[in-house]
Amino acid sequence: xxxxxxxxxxxxxINTVYRTYEPIFFGELEIKHESHYNDFWSSTIADxxxxxxxxxxxILLTDLRDISVHRFDTESVTRDGLFNDTQLFAIxxxxxxxxxxxxxxxxxx
Length: 109
Fold this sequence. Notes:
- This protein is α+β, with helices and mostly antiparallel strands.
- It has one domain (2-106).
- The chain has helices at residues 6-10, 53-62, 94-106, and strands spanning 2-5, 17-22, 25-26, 30-36, 39-44, 47-48, 72-73, 78-79, 88-91.
- A hairpin with a 2-residue loop joins β2 and β3.
């Protein structure tokens, strides 16, 4: 894993695995999609399937007792739109991703 600037991040290819980074804090694990000027698109690794932010809020506010009825959505893409030029990113390399996959595989047994 390495920490890079937003400017460097925007140049990275689609399917880069990353987390936002602030000293002593990491954001969610995400997958980068396209960059567009000073903005980018991404998807979280394991978000709840929903039709939008209002639906997500309703699920989280009303269905917390039975969240198991909701499927994970690993394909939806959202726009960053924060334009924070000082944002840092922790980039996962192939070894990091392989290690994560190996660990998740152990959860299946």
